[in-house]
Amino acid sequence: FFGTVISFGPMASHILALFVSTLLVVSATSATVSWIVPAGGGPLPAQTVAVGDAVQFSGDSGSHNLWQVSSTSCSTTGGTELQAATTNLAYTWTPTATGTYHFICTVSGHCSAGQKVTITVTAASSTSPAASPATSPTSP
């Protein structure tokens, strides 16, 4: 029993090589949006994330809400309130599809003062691990 070499045929080696070469590693990351009324009145900096990434909206001690809307025009028509007005807002949004998404705060005067952001969602990236070179086993 000891000293016995186990040998696999060429088909098993090819299947193993195919399996290793087709493994995909997908990694999600996160982004943070400081959900505050910005100084200077401009919109918050645009963000770009990938499908599956976590976007954390993080508010301050002021009262803020979070709406997903069709544009940054400060209108909630056709929009969805994701988080009602609260202090220290903390909301995580995870996109499931590519596209351009807009978010606003509708607390009195906040959107017109610049509390709005556009987030572009790209396809999830995937990377292939470096595959080991396939070697054919030898028979004794």
Walk me through this protein's architecture.
This is Phytocyanin domain-containing protein. Keywords: Signal. Pfam families: Cu_bind_like. There is one protein chain. The protein has one helix at 10-22; strands at residues 25-26, 30-35, 47-50, 54-59, 63-69, 80-87, 90-93, 99-104, 116-122, 126-127. Residues 14-26 and 128-135 have low confidence and may be disordered. The chain is elongated. It contains 1 helix and 10 strands, in the order αββββββββββ. It has a single domain, classed as Sandwich (Immunoglobulin-like). A 5-stranded mixed β-sheet has the order 3-9-8-5-6, with no helix packed on it. A 3-stranded mixed β-sheet has the order 2-4-7, with no helix packed on it. Strands 1-10 form a two-stranded antiparallel ribbon. With 140 residues, the protein is mainly β.
